[in-house]
Amino acid sequence: MVKPALLVLAAGMGSRYGGLKQVDPVGPSGEIILDYSIYDAVQSGFGKVVFVIRRDIEEIFREKVGSKWENRIQVEYVFQDLENLPAPYKLPAGRTKPWGTGHAILSAADAIREPFAAINADDFYGRSAYALVAKAFAANPDPVKRHFMVGFTLRNTLSENGTVSRGICVKDANDLLTEVTERTDILPAPGGKAQFKDADGTIYPLTGDEIASMNFWGFMPSIFDHLGGLFEDFLSKRGTELKSEFYIPFAVSELIHKGIISVQVMNSSDSWFGVTYREDKPVVQQSIRSLVDRGVYPTPLE
Asked: What is the DSSP string of the chain?
Protein backbone atom coordinates (compact mmCIF):
# COMPACT_ATOMS: atom_id res chain seq x y z
CA MET A 1 0.00 0.00 0.00
CA VAL A 2 1.28 3.48 -0.90
CA LYS A 3 1.97 5.63 2.13
CA PRO A 4 0.33 9.07 2.07
CA ALA A 5 2.34 12.30 1.88
CA LEU A 6 2.18 15.36 4.09
CA LEU A 7 2.10 18.69 2.26
CA VAL A 8 3.05 21.60 4.52
CA LEU A 9 2.10 25.13 3.48
CA ALA A 10 4.95 27.15 4.93
CA ALA A 11 5.55 30.06 2.56
CA GLY A 12 4.02 32.74 4.80
CA MET A 13 6.00 34.97 7.13
CA GLY A 14 3.17 35.65 9.61
CA SER A 15 3.02 39.43 9.33
CA ARG A 16 0.64 39.89 12.30
CA TYR A 17 2.93 37.80 14.49
CA GLY A 18 6.17 39.52 13.47
CA GLY A 19 8.93 37.23 12.25
CA LEU A 20 9.22 33.75 10.81
CA LYS A 21 6.85 32.10 13.26
CA GLN A 22 7.11 28.70 11.58
CA VAL A 23 10.55 28.17 13.17
CA ASP A 24 9.85 29.76 16.56
CA PRO A 25 10.42 27.19 19.37
CA VAL A 26 7.39 26.28 21.51
CA GLY A 27 8.27 22.82 22.88
CA PRO A 28 10.21 22.11 26.10
CA SER A 29 13.27 20.94 24.13
CA GLY A 30 13.14 23.66 21.50
CA GLU A 31 10.61 21.98 19.20
CA ILE A 32 8.55 24.07 16.80
CA ILE A 33 4.87 23.42 16.09
CA LEU A 34 5.77 21.83 12.78
CA ASP A 35 7.97 19.25 14.51
CA TYR A 36 4.87 17.90 16.27
CA SER A 37 2.94 17.82 12.99
CA ILE A 38 5.64 15.78 11.27
CA TYR A 39 6.00 13.52 14.31
CA ASP A 40 2.25 12.84 14.33
CA ALA A 41 2.29 12.16 10.58
CA VAL A 42 5.15 9.68 10.93
CA GLN A 43 3.35 7.95 13.79
CA SER A 44 0.23 7.72 11.59
CA GLY A 45 2.04 6.04 8.70
CA PHE A 46 2.87 8.91 6.36
CA GLY A 47 5.88 8.27 4.14
CA LYS A 48 6.90 11.67 2.79
CA VAL A 49 6.74 15.34 3.71
CA VAL A 50 6.78 18.12 1.11
CA PHE A 51 7.34 21.69 2.25
CA VAL A 52 5.95 24.60 0.22
CA ILE A 53 8.27 27.51 0.97
CA ARG A 54 9.66 30.67 -0.58
CA ARG A 55 13.16 30.69 -1.96
CA ASP A 56 14.31 33.40 0.43
CA ILE A 57 13.57 31.23 3.50
CA GLU A 58 14.97 27.99 2.06
CA GLU A 59 18.26 28.10 3.98
CA ILE A 60 16.75 28.68 7.41
CA PHE A 61 13.96 26.18 6.75
CA ARG A 62 16.36 23.42 5.74
CA GLU A 63 18.46 24.15 8.83
CA LYS A 64 15.64 24.44 11.38
CA VAL A 65 13.21 21.84 10.04
CA GLY A 66 14.39 19.59 7.23
CA SER A 67 17.70 18.63 8.80
CA LYS A 68 15.92 17.20 11.85
CA TRP A 69 13.67 14.90 9.82
CA GLU A 70 15.61 13.84 6.75
CA ASN A 71 16.74 10.60 8.43
CA ARG A 72 13.21 9.66 9.52
CA ILE A 73 11.01 10.47 6.53
CA GLN A 74 11.50 11.43 2.90
CA VAL A 75 11.75 15.23 2.73
CA GLU A 76 11.22 17.40 -0.35
CA TYR A 77 10.92 21.14 -0.96
CA VAL A 78 8.89 23.04 -3.54
CA PHE A 79 8.63 26.78 -4.01
CA GLN A 80 5.57 29.00 -4.23
CA ASP A 81 6.75 31.55 -6.79
CA LEU A 82 4.62 34.49 -7.87
CA GLU A 83 5.77 33.94 -11.44
CA ASN A 84 4.64 30.30 -11.48
CA LEU A 85 1.56 30.85 -13.64
CA PRO A 86 0.10 28.85 -16.54
CA ALA A 87 0.50 30.30 -20.03
CA PRO A 88 -0.47 32.84 -21.25
CA TYR A 89 -0.86 34.57 -17.86
CA LYS A 90 1.83 36.91 -16.60
CA LEU A 91 2.57 38.43 -13.22
CA PRO A 92 0.93 41.88 -13.12
CA ALA A 93 3.28 44.79 -12.49
CA GLY A 94 3.37 45.69 -8.81
CA ARG A 95 2.04 42.35 -7.52
CA THR A 96 3.95 41.18 -4.42
CA LYS A 97 1.20 39.27 -2.56
CA PRO A 98 1.21 35.45 -2.90
CA TRP A 99 -1.61 33.91 -4.93
CA GLY A 100 -3.11 32.04 -1.94
CA THR A 101 -3.41 28.55 -0.49
CA GLY A 102 -4.86 27.03 -3.67
CA HIS A 103 -1.80 28.18 -5.61
CA ALA A 104 0.46 26.91 -2.82
CA ILE A 105 -0.99 23.42 -3.17
CA LEU A 106 -0.68 23.59 -6.95
CA SER A 107 3.01 24.36 -6.49
CA ALA A 108 3.49 20.75 -5.33
CA ALA A 109 1.79 19.11 -8.32
CA ASP A 110 5.05 17.70 -9.68
CA ALA A 111 6.20 16.39 -6.29
CA ILE A 112 3.15 14.37 -5.20
CA ARG A 113 1.58 11.33 -6.86
CA GLU A 114 0.01 9.74 -3.78
CA PRO A 115 -2.87 10.71 -1.47
CA PHE A 116 -1.78 13.60 0.71
CA ALA A 117 -2.78 15.70 3.68
CA ALA A 118 -2.35 19.46 3.26
CA ILE A 119 -1.79 21.49 6.43
CA ASN A 120 -0.62 24.90 7.64
CA ALA A 121 2.89 25.00 9.05
CA ASP A 122 1.91 27.06 12.08
CA ASP A 123 -1.12 25.10 13.31
CA PHE A 124 -1.09 22.30 15.89
CA TYR A 125 -3.75 19.79 14.89
CA GLY A 126 -3.14 16.78 17.16
CA ARG A 127 -2.42 13.20 16.19
CA SER A 128 -6.02 12.08 15.68
CA ALA A 129 -6.31 14.31 12.60
CA TYR A 130 -3.46 12.49 10.86
CA ALA A 131 -4.76 9.08 11.93
CA LEU A 132 -8.26 9.91 10.68
CA VAL A 133 -7.00 10.95 7.25
CA ALA A 134 -4.63 8.00 6.89
CA LYS A 135 -7.45 5.59 7.74
CA ALA A 136 -9.81 7.37 5.34
CA PHE A 137 -7.30 7.14 2.50
CA ALA A 138 -6.94 3.39 3.05
CA ALA A 139 -10.72 2.84 2.97
CA ASN A 140 -11.61 5.44 0.34
CA PRO A 141 -14.78 4.24 -1.48
CA ASP A 142 -14.04 6.44 -4.51
CA PRO A 143 -10.29 7.14 -4.89
CA VAL A 144 -10.89 9.50 -7.82
CA LYS A 145 -13.73 11.67 -6.54
CA ARG A 146 -13.72 11.39 -2.73
CA HIS A 147 -11.54 13.70 -0.67
CA PHE A 148 -11.49 14.51 3.05
CA MET A 149 -11.36 17.32 5.57
CA VAL A 150 -10.71 17.33 9.31
CA GLY A 151 -12.80 19.95 11.10
CA PHE A 152 -12.55 21.50 14.55
CA THR A 153 -15.15 23.12 16.82
CA LEU A 154 -15.03 26.86 16.13
CA ARG A 155 -14.87 28.04 19.75
CA ASN A 156 -11.73 25.94 20.23
CA THR A 157 -9.92 27.68 17.37
CA LEU A 158 -10.19 31.32 18.42
CA SER A 159 -7.61 33.70 19.88
CA GLU A 160 -8.12 35.98 22.87
CA ASN A 161 -5.53 38.32 21.36
CA GLY A 162 -7.20 39.39 18.12
CA THR A 163 -9.39 38.43 15.19
CA VAL A 164 -8.95 35.29 13.08
CA SER A 165 -10.24 34.04 9.74
CA ARG A 166 -11.89 30.62 9.53
CA GLY A 167 -13.64 28.55 6.90
CA ILE A 168 -17.09 27.84 8.38
CA CYS A 169 -18.34 24.48 7.13
CA VAL A 170 -21.73 22.92 6.55
CA LYS A 171 -22.17 19.17 6.03
CA ASP A 172 -25.12 16.96 5.11
CA ALA A 173 -26.57 13.92 6.88
CA ASN A 174 -23.87 11.72 5.34
CA ASP A 175 -21.05 13.93 6.69
CA LEU A 176 -20.29 15.24 3.22
CA LEU A 177 -19.22 18.86 2.96
CA THR A 178 -21.79 21.09 1.26
CA GLU A 179 -20.30 24.54 1.84
CA VAL A 180 -17.20 26.32 3.11
CA THR A 181 -17.59 30.04 3.72
CA GLU A 182 -14.51 32.07 4.57
CA ARG A 183 -15.29 34.36 7.51
CA THR A 184 -12.89 37.06 8.63
CA ASP A 185 -12.60 39.16 11.77
CA ILE A 186 -13.92 36.41 14.06
CA LEU A 187 -13.74 37.05 17.80
CA PRO A 188 -14.81 35.06 20.89
CA ALA A 189 -18.10 36.12 22.51
CA PRO A 190 -19.46 35.42 26.01
CA GLY A 191 -20.77 31.95 26.78
CA GLY A 192 -18.49 30.11 24.37
CA LYS A 193 -20.03 31.86 21.39
CA ALA A 194 -18.37 33.91 18.66
CA GLN A 195 -19.02 36.73 16.23
CA PHE A 196 -17.66 37.95 12.92
CA LYS A 197 -17.64 41.24 11.04
CA ASP A 198 -18.35 41.42 7.32
CA ALA A 199 -16.87 43.79 4.75
CA ASP A 200 -19.26 46.66 5.55
CA GLY A 201 -18.64 46.41 9.31
CA THR A 202 -21.85 44.60 10.26
CA ILE A 203 -21.39 42.17 13.18
CA TYR A 204 -23.05 38.73 13.02
CA PRO A 205 -23.35 36.18 15.86
CA LEU A 206 -22.05 32.61 15.74
CA THR A 207 -22.93 29.79 18.14
CA GLY A 208 -19.33 28.61 18.57
CA ASP A 209 -20.41 25.06 17.69
CA GLU A 210 -19.78 25.56 13.97
CA ILE A 211 -17.32 23.30 12.19
CA ALA A 212 -14.21 25.29 11.36
CA SER A 213 -11.85 24.34 8.59
CA MET A 214 -8.29 24.87 9.77
CA ASN A 215 -6.87 23.92 6.38
CA PHE A 216 -6.42 20.25 7.22
CA TRP A 217 -7.36 18.57 3.96
CA GLY A 218 -6.99 15.00 2.77
CA PHE A 219 -6.68 15.08 -1.01
CA MET A 220 -6.31 12.44 -3.65
CA PRO A 221 -3.76 13.41 -6.34
CA SER A 222 -6.59 13.99 -8.85
CA ILE A 223 -7.19 17.31 -7.05
CA PHE A 224 -4.27 18.91 -8.87
CA ASP A 225 -5.95 18.79 -12.27
CA HIS A 226 -9.14 20.25 -10.84
CA LEU A 227 -7.30 23.03 -9.03
CA GLY A 228 -5.33 23.83 -12.16
CA GLY A 229 -8.48 24.49 -14.13
CA LEU A 230 -10.02 26.63 -11.40
CA PHE A 231 -6.82 28.63 -11.02
CA GLU A 232 -6.88 29.46 -14.72
CA ASP A 233 -10.50 30.60 -14.35
CA PHE A 234 -9.44 32.72 -11.39
CA LEU A 235 -6.61 34.32 -13.35
CA SER A 236 -8.87 35.09 -16.30
CA LYS A 237 -11.22 37.02 -14.00
CA ARG A 238 -8.96 38.45 -11.32
CA GLY A 239 -5.39 37.87 -12.45
CA THR A 240 -4.65 41.54 -13.00
CA GLU A 241 -5.54 42.46 -9.41
CA LEU A 242 -2.69 43.06 -6.99
CA LYS A 243 -4.19 41.46 -3.85
CA SER A 244 -6.70 38.81 -4.97
CA GLU A 245 -6.06 35.29 -3.64
CA PHE A 246 -7.01 31.81 -4.81
CA TYR A 247 -8.16 30.23 -1.55
CA ILE A 248 -8.44 26.45 -1.20
CA PRO A 249 -11.84 26.63 0.61
CA PHE A 250 -13.23 28.57 -2.35
CA ALA A 251 -11.82 26.02 -4.80
CA VAL A 252 -13.21 23.06 -2.83
CA SER A 253 -16.66 24.69 -2.67
CA GLU A 254 -16.64 25.29 -6.42
CA LEU A 255 -15.72 21.68 -7.15
CA ILE A 256 -18.41 20.38 -4.78
CA HIS A 257 -21.09 22.59 -6.34
CA LYS A 258 -20.13 21.37 -9.81
CA GLY A 259 -20.38 17.74 -8.66
CA ILE A 260 -16.75 17.08 -9.55
CA ILE A 261 -15.66 16.01 -6.06
CA SER A 262 -17.13 15.03 -2.71
CA VAL A 263 -15.50 15.78 0.63
CA GLN A 264 -16.11 13.74 3.77
CA VAL A 265 -15.92 15.78 6.96
CA MET A 266 -14.26 14.17 9.96
CA ASN A 267 -14.22 15.81 13.39
CA SER A 268 -11.02 15.68 15.39
CA SER A 269 -11.22 14.80 19.06
CA ASP A 270 -8.04 16.79 19.75
CA SER A 271 -7.77 20.47 20.55
CA TRP A 272 -6.37 22.75 17.86
CA PHE A 273 -4.08 25.57 18.80
CA GLY A 274 -1.82 27.93 16.94
CA VAL A 275 0.20 31.11 17.12
CA THR A 276 -1.68 33.76 15.21
CA TYR A 277 -0.34 36.56 17.42
CA ARG A 278 2.84 36.72 19.47
CA GLU A 279 0.71 36.83 22.62
CA ASP A 280 -0.63 33.35 21.76
CA LYS A 281 2.78 31.74 22.24
CA PRO A 282 2.63 31.19 26.04
CA VAL A 283 -0.71 29.39 25.67
CA VAL A 284 0.75 27.10 23.01
CA GLN A 285 3.82 26.40 25.13
CA GLN A 286 1.63 25.52 28.13
CA SER A 287 -0.61 23.26 26.01
CA ILE A 288 2.35 21.34 24.61
CA ARG A 289 3.94 21.06 28.05
CA SER A 290 0.69 19.50 29.29
CA LEU A 291 0.71 16.95 26.45
CA VAL A 292 4.32 16.07 27.22
CA ASP A 293 3.53 15.67 30.92
CA ARG A 294 0.68 13.31 30.00
CA GLY A 295 3.06 11.18 27.93
CA VAL A 296 1.51 12.02 24.56
CA TYR A 297 4.88 13.25 23.29
CA PRO A 298 8.44 12.50 24.35
CA THR A 299 10.88 15.33 24.97
CA PRO A 300 12.88 15.74 22.95
CA LEU A 301 10.88 14.29 20.06
CA GLU A 302 12.50 11.05 18.91
From this structure: -PPPEEEEE-----TTT-S-GGG---STTS--HHHHHHHHHHHTT--EEEEEE-GGGHHHHIIIIIHHHTTTSEEEEEE--TT---TT--PPTT--S---HHHHHHTTTTT--S-EEEEETTEE--HHHHHHHHHHHHT-S-TTTEEEEEEEEGGGG--TTS-EEEEEEEE-TTSBEEEEEEEEEEEEEGGGEEEEE-TTS-EEEE-S-SEEEEEEEEE-TTHHHHHHHHHHHHHHHHTT-SS----HHHHHHHHHHTTS-EEEEEE-SSPPEE-SSGGGHHHHHHHHHHHHHTTSS-SS--
Q: What is the pLDDT of residues 216-249, one digit of tens each?
A: 999 999 999 999 999 999 999 999 999 999 989 8
- Give the global pTM: 0.91
